[in-house]
Each structure stands twice: as C-alpha cells, then as structure tokens.
Amino acid sequence: MVAQERSVGNAMDDAGILLQLKNLYAKQDYKDLLANVEIKVVEGRVLLTGNVDKAESQVEAVRLAWEVPGVREV
After folding, report:
1. CA 56 to chain centre
2. Considering the entire predicted model, what is its pTM?
C-alpha cells in the first residue's frame, strides 16, 4: 500500500467496499456475478469488468454496487 498514491485509510475504505460488494454478489440469485465480474475499487470508484450470462445480471451488478456505503462512482 505504501507505493500507492492514495492514503492507507482510503485503501482500507476501498478494501471494505470490495468485501461488501463481493458479499452482496455472493448472496444473489445471479450466480454469474461473483464468478464472472472482476471488481476494482479506487477512492470509492468501482470498476466492474467481465462477462455475465444475462443483461439482468449486468444491471444487478451496477445496482448492488451503488448500495455499498462509500461508493462514489460506478
């Protein structure tokens, strides 16, 4: 974390967002979210990449990301 430009506190906040989002994805009926979506979080900005089976899964991935406290942008 030292080599990154963000503070240790921001990196910890981002790690918390990442864990909460993965937990939300694991609890969903859209099982392809956890398996097929890669999540990166930097300073509260969430980047979702990957391929999902249905368009509904894509919408759900974004919706859930906005539910996590601290998320500023998806």
Report:
1. 17
2. 0.83
